[in-house]
Amino acid sequence: MQKGFTLAEVLITLGIIGVVAALTIPSLVNQYKKQVYYTQFRKAATNLENAFKKYEFDNGCEGSILSCKDHYTAEDIMPYFKVAQAINADNWESICQKAIEKDDNYQCFNDTADNAYTHAFITSDGMLFNLSTDQGLGNASIVDTNGPNKGPNEYGRDIFVFYSPGAPSCDNVKQIVIWGGDEEKLGCPQDVISKCDDLNNSADMQGCAARLLREGKMNY
């Protein structure tokens, strides 16, 4: 005489497995996405910092990159990246159309003060770097780590702000790159300190670069 599970027992077991999966899989997927975002962020941060260091070395900047120039455009650091496409006043809308449709403030090309310069570019690995000097950002570098055509196109997830030397009220700081949100530790005024705590407010998320570097993971 052979013994086995009844149909009811099998269905109950499958039901329990389904409930457990429904409870755990979304969390696992979310953690995986955060790890992907963090890995892309670290790569972008390293590439940007290395580019400034190489520029400083090649141009003989003494003590600080600010000894060479007051502010930097994409054209200054493009030679230190594998650039797939430069973004300028003529092509930015078509390149970033998908991202702009989601958010008309998407930082693809926003420096209308001087359209003669290239202020942004896309690298061969799909990252978008924008070194615009418009909108009071000073020497801020805005990076979309997976480019304009891949989501979520949100600050703190795949978009990050990095301040390079000469950022507003931080001109005395002798550092290659000042990470967004680190202004307080560097002695800059309170009014330029960024946050990273409100996922529904892009302005509050612009300090996430510093938070990720301090904490070593994306835990928000």
Characterize this entry briefly.
This protein has 220 residues and is α+β, with helices and mostly antiparallel strands.
Instruction: Report the β-strand fraction as a percent range.
Output: 5-15%
Number of strands: 6
* Cα shape: elongated
Helix tally equals: 5
How much is the average pLDDT? 75
Largest sheet: 6 strands, antiparallel
Percent range for helical residues?
25-40%
Low-confidence stretches: 171-178, 189-193
Terminal residue distance? 57 Å
Strand line-up in the sheet with most strands: 1-2-3-4-5-6
Taken together, the total number of domains comes to: 1
Give me the strand/helix succession.
Answer: HHEHHEEEEEH
Helix/strand class: alpha+beta
From the alpha-carbon coordinates, what is the Rg to the nearest angstrom? Answer: 22 Å
Note the main attributes of this structure:
alpha+beta; 220 residues; single chain; 11% strand; 34% helix; six-stranded antiparallel beta sheet; 6 strands
Please provide a written account of the structure:
Strand 2 and strand 3 form a beta hairpin. The radius of gyration is 22 Å and the shape is elongated. The protein is of the alpha+beta class. Helices cover 34% and strands 11% of the residues. It contains five helices and six strands, in the order H-H-E-H-H-E-E-E-E-E-H. It has one domain. A six-stranded antiparallel sheet has the order 1-2-3-4-5-6.
